[in-house]
Structures are given as structure tokens and as C-alpha cells.
Amino acid sequence: MQLDDTIAAIVTGGASGLGEATARALRAHGVKVALFDMNVARGTEVAAEIGATFCEVNVTSEDSVDAGFAKARAANGQERILVNCAGTGNAIKTASRDKKTGEIKHFPLDAFNMIIQINLVGTFRCIAKSAAGMLSLDPLEDGERGAIINTASVAAEDGQMGQAAYSASKGGVVGMTLPIARDLMGEGIRVNTILPGIFNTPLMNAAPDAVKDALAMSVPFPKRLGKPEEYAQLALTMITNGYFNGEDVRLDGAIRMAPR
């Protein structure tokens, strides 16, 4: 797919981090972009800066997602590109014992379900609705109608202590990539997933320098945190390379996460 001003894209989680970097990269090629995010202040600011459309969207809400797609399509037309970056995480052991009191606790199921609803169900909700819209488009070269990029995590393959919910949600994103690509192959819609390692996103920026330095040193090479622009570069490659389909690709400097 060639990127230019005839193409529309939606980026979930587009107000910051990996989503923002991808939105900026798409706009640099002239693509019409809509940002889905819950951070109204930051989303509005980024959209104004790059010439995009901001849509306040909670991916766990059917009505919110429907309204977001309606607003984005009214502004830019039917999207041919969807990049799913919206997500979150938590760190809770499956079961644990308080070292001082001896009290035994287990992972609250509502906290587990929240991560699944945002990272996995929210991603699928946007995929299904975007793909249905793409079916209405005329095919491009090779019969292509659209490209969908999802964001998982290296935790899908080597999750750490306390990441049961996060790893399950991201493992689900990896697991559904190929069957969705197969579902949509007859309609010319490609589906790929990126598994980022440790990236220098706003969430990571809040960590102390000593923590970030230690994490950087744990990366085999290069010994630094990933740059959001590097995620965006891979996302654009997946979009523009028409033979890239049904793949789950780690982007992690060869890191394999330790148990903790």
C-alpha cells in the first residue's frame, strides 16, 4: 500500500507513546489520521499539532468505539489502515502471602478482566469494526483493501512475575493474528502484530533513571530502551509491504525477559 493523502488511518492509543509516533509517521506521508484515545487534553494537542482528527474513545465501550469510527470516517473517509496501540497493564501475583502478616491473597478477578477487556477484547472490537468498513472499499493493487497492525508485547511469550493478566491479554492478540488474517484474506485485508520489548514511552519515563538504566543494560543489543519511532518504522513497513501478512514480530533488541 502506498501512503499518501488518498489513504485514511485510525490509530488507537494515538495520543502518546507508540501510537503517537505511528500517527506522526503516517501524517508525514500525507495519510489522513484519526486518533482514538481517552486522554482528551493530550489527544487534542497532538491532533492539532500534526493535522489529525481526535476522537475520545474508550475501547471497552461499544458505543464509544462506534462513535469514534463515525467521527473519524466523517472527517477522513473510510480508513484503509488501523493501528491498535491502546492498552494497559498491571502487576499482581496469581496468589501471594504477606511477608509480615501471613495473609494470603489472590489476583482479583475484576482486575484480571479489566486488562483482558482493554488489551484483547478492545483490540478485537476495533479490528472487527474497521475490517467491516474496509470491505466497502474498492481494492487497490493486488486486490488489497486494507492493513491492520496490532500491538502485543514480548510478555506474550516470556511474561514476568505478576504479569498473568497482561501476558494473557497480549498472548491473545498474538493468537488471533493468523486466524483473523485468514478470515480476511479473501477480501484483501492484511493483519500483522508487533511484540515490543522495553520502550521509552511516557509510562517508562515516569520510572527513576536508575531503573531505566538497569532495564537498558538488560537488552542484548543495542543496550538502550526502544524508541517509539522504531515501532512506527516497523508498523509502516508492515503497511507498505504487501507481502507482509499474518505475522507476529518481536521488536526488542533480542531481549528475553527474566522471571522478575
UniProtKB/TrEMBL annotation:
Protein's name in the database: Putative oxidoreductase
Listed GO MF terms: oxidoreductase activity
Establish whether keyword Phosphoprotein is in the entry.
no
Tell me the protein family, please. Belongs to the short-chain dehydrogenases/reductases (SDR) family.
Short name of one Pfam family for this protein?
adh_short
Question: What InterPro entries is this protein classified in?
Answer: NAD(P)-bd_dom_sf (IPR036291), Sc_DH/Rdtase_CS (IPR020904), SDR_fam (IPR002347)
Transmembrane segments in this chain: where?
none
User: What are the protein's UniProt keywords?
Assistant: Oxidoreductase
Q: SUPFAM superfamilies, alphabetically?
A: NAD(P)-binding Rossmann-fold domains
Asked whether the UniProt record includes Oxidoreductase among its keywords, one would answer yes
The beginning of the lineage is: Bacteria, Pseudomonadati, Pseudomonadota, Alphaproteobacteria, Caulobacterales
